[in-house]
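ARCHIVE CARD
SHELF: 3
SLOT: left
DATA:
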Amino acid sequence: MSEELEAAGAAVTAGLVAAVVEGTSAQPPDPPSTQCRNCGRPLSGAYCAGCGQSAHIHRSLLHFGEEVLHGILHFDAKSWRTVLLLVARPGLLTRRYIDGQRTRYVSPLALFLFTMFLMYFVFTLTSGVSVTPASLSDADRAEARSQLATAVDEAKADVAEHEAALARARSQRADAASAELDLAAARKTQQAVEAALAAFDAAADKGAPGGAVQPSPAWSAHLETGHAALDEAVRQQLKNPELALYRLKNTAYKFSFMLIPISLPFLWLMFVLRRDIALYDHAVFCLYSLSFMSLLFAAVALLALTPLGGLLALITLVVPPLHMFAQLRETYGLGTRSALWRTVALLGIAGTAFALFLVFVLAVSMR
């Protein structure tokens, strides 16, 4: 009797092993479907007209790895095409986007937000300034966490807004590529700020309560500008220079979009007699130009860590004017002389706009 039970058990075990092996073996591809696997709507092309899902469903580990890389980098052919033109032919990229060729390129606003985040990230890694929650006072630590929590809430609201915009685009059977890109950028931002908040909380748990505030330099005690409120604000910032710089960088990143409204009036004045140019054209020009400058400064910060750091002065003096000249000439259809004097004017505009932006950032960060 026991031998029969053992034989039956062996047969059951062998059957289970065979089933597992058969289940893990390569499966034949699913037969083509005439209905969307997501919403059940009849298919008439490569994508569902109702929800936008692809008609071809992948079931391979190779494609799963591809999706992982795409989710992390989200750098498709459109992104490469945009960045290459931004570097080599910025005027052509700007002109094409203004003229309505937008499906093939990343929108200037999405590119601007991404490059600003990249530049801020690179500067944070290379600046050598390290401010931890344990180095802050209780009030500053609470304020910093409150700002991070607010940033998380704003990022979630932004994601919800872009999800709604994507849903509307798909329901109206409109081109959803730009909406998908904006949603992906919003989700990346949400992940970044959530990770920052989690890291802040983890560091705060390890640190001792109460921050060690650096003493104020002796000369700051005698600082007098003639404005009592300003003198007191400066003294408070100088009590912890690293914290002041940290706040300054965060404020500059958070309000980087203010560079656009600051620059637009100056650009409008340069082309005040051109009735064929709208403020929208100048906004696209500014966004793409600032995106390139952000990439350039991020590259310069990384280059400073290499033996080629001696080229930094040459790069920062030569590349921006050349890029401005090329973008101005091809975007607005200018001649050589017209593009040259406007390049000189644009360099002055850039310096003025940055100075005004710096004053704004200082005023906000010192409140």
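SLOT: right
DATA:
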Amino acid sequence: MRRTGVLSESGLRELLGRICEKSRLMAGVKRGKTSFDFEWIDDPEKVQLGYVRTVLPPKKAFMPPREKVLEFSMADGKTTAVLDREPFVLFGIHPCDLKGIELLDWAMGQRHGVSDPYYLARRKAATIVGIDCMPDEYCFCTSVGSADTREGADLFLTPIESGYFVEVLTEKGEDLLKEAAEVREATAADEAAAKAAWDERKQGVKTKIKAEMEALPDRLEPRYHSDVFEATALRCYSCGTCTNVCPTCFCFDVDDEVDLLLSSGTRERTYDSCQFQDFAVVAGGHNFRGERADRVRHRWFRKFVYLLREHGMPFCVGCGRCSKSCTAEIGLVDVLNSVLAQAREEVVR
């Protein structure tokens, strides 16, 4: 389903207020002088909508950096799964992050027929409101096909001169919009204004991957031992920042915590990173990615070779978080384009 309307600025704030009264709300808020993050909030006035990106992606709503997944008793051997099914609204999600949620839905819910009940419980409980944005020098959504994403959103908002152009995409979105008093039907002029905003955003994306997505696996695989990865590894700190801020990385570690009486405990999982030195250590102590260059290479190959072939889409949404957050100022697109340039040079020879 898709119908459209226009919501005024005051109507939007009223909608946020009613959401806070009736449900949990996670939305973007300002942190410090220039940073933004998604947080649980109870004051609609804190909600920020004009940011380029948050530090952490909205996947934290479905897969928190640290979460308790199980409680167990040592006395009777009983275990209880800890599932969060409480409804909530996730507000202000950009197209690239909607694509990230779409990819996580596949990874956590459909891949190889194995699903993650913790992720899916939160995902089912969510109502998602997307919003259009403007790019900066780190964004490259047009290269990876995420610029026009609506999949996963129940409502989608585009700022226009008269307020917000609203796309109602699901029944959940329809129900949520009923909480807003100041909504009118969209006119052809409103639709044209929204389209102009979409076109302006895409034209503003200047960072580009210099190859078509479907060609990347065949272009990259012969460059497995490219010296570009070796040079990148010399700069990399193996800190894991890039994967922790990535909307589509889903690796985690699991630990059991037992109380001092050894009578009960909990199982928790936390974000892990393929860039950590011990990530690939297996039984017997062998580390099959012990060298930093191997870990660096793996990141690019997982995004643009392995999972692209498996899923038909790159596991990168072009949000630019990894490049902006990298302590060594390594640009994902820069590295990728350097390897692709080598490939073109080899063809010319």
